[in-house]
Amino acid sequence: xxxxxxxxxxxxxxxxxxxxxxxxxxxxxxxxxxxxxxxxxxxxxxxxxxxxxxxxxxxxxxxxxxxxxxxxxxxxxxxxxxxxxxxxxxxxxxxxxxxxxxxxxxxxxxxxxxxxxxxxxxxxxxxxxxxxxxxxxxxxxxxxxxxxxxxxxxxxxxxxxxxxxxxxxxxxxxxxxxxxxxxxxxxxxxxxxxxxxxxxxxxxxxxxxxxxxxxxxxxxxxxxxxxxxxxxxxxxxxxxxxxxxxxxxxxxxxxxxxxxxxxxxxxxxxxxxxxxxxxxxxxxxxxxxxxxxxxxxxxxxxxxxxxxxxxxxxxxxxxxxxxxxxxxxxxxxxxxxxxxxxxxxxxxxxxxxxxxxxxxxxxxxxxxxxxxxxxxxxxxxxxxxxxxxxxxxxxxxxxxxxxxxxxxxxxxx
Length: 413
Hints:
With 413 residues, this protein is an alpha/beta fold. 34% of the residues lie in helices and 20% in strands.
């Protein structure tokens, strides 16, 4: 594994990159956080997104904030309706954050309703109102450095701009929304694993739900992969209703991801990974994690010829001009990529078959777009092909039926 762990910068370069990245992120601090106070009415031409929100955060008494970044002792459920300004007053891919309270719905994201989900009946009523013909739900798991309101508004933006009509469920875990709390946030994902497992299982077991898609970003991808691993171990398999998993800029140690995929078992959903070698946030994470590559920041395109034995599609967005300083939110804040994401959320099959690769991953639409002069690159790859050649052979042994053999005094792991 030394080929992917080798540092490419002098020792001080990563330190400088960390400080610069943190400075950029810290510059976003200071915005209002009590923005979840409902406004009386939405303006003309606005759109609404009705989100079911589950959280392991601790409730707060602060008006308009609802939940803090601390860890709660229970899973709390809310039904939140978000108003989005008319397209003429906003840029696709952006969250127009309120500049004051109450927000101005014609120009800013605003909340129309915050309801407490007191019973399962409330959940059924919400789903009946929001389900589409395929009875799809999409579960979103946010990333590092997100407050409760960050997660709510970002998910509303993704649902609106991607054009999906799947019923939106947000799972928000206890992030303090502070760039200097990386380790606290990482432990909070571990704290929340069982809760996300339960949500996945309950969604899949419901006779009202026909299909489940999971969308996870950054550190939330680690939580999602761990939860799916837990579901497989508890349930002996991942439910067949969980069709697609989308990992955007996944902040996962590449060695750990290989183990997670193996331990999910053979009945895994289709995975789509949005990655970029220009993602500065993942470069910082790599440095913090001892120089081990992150799944979302590694260039897998040289291995495009490998068979997708584990059903993974990698969409390389390195050539896409990012709209955020770190290049970490391209999946959601770039107009063309969020539309491509919409095709994923619509449940389009990623199965290999007679259709072309372009048809399977929606590249026909992307190639007509202006992506900084170059279309996003797409490669079908497996975790074994984004690590070393030796690791590929090990993984093939691990995926074989029966117990792994002892070879030269070693057992594959």
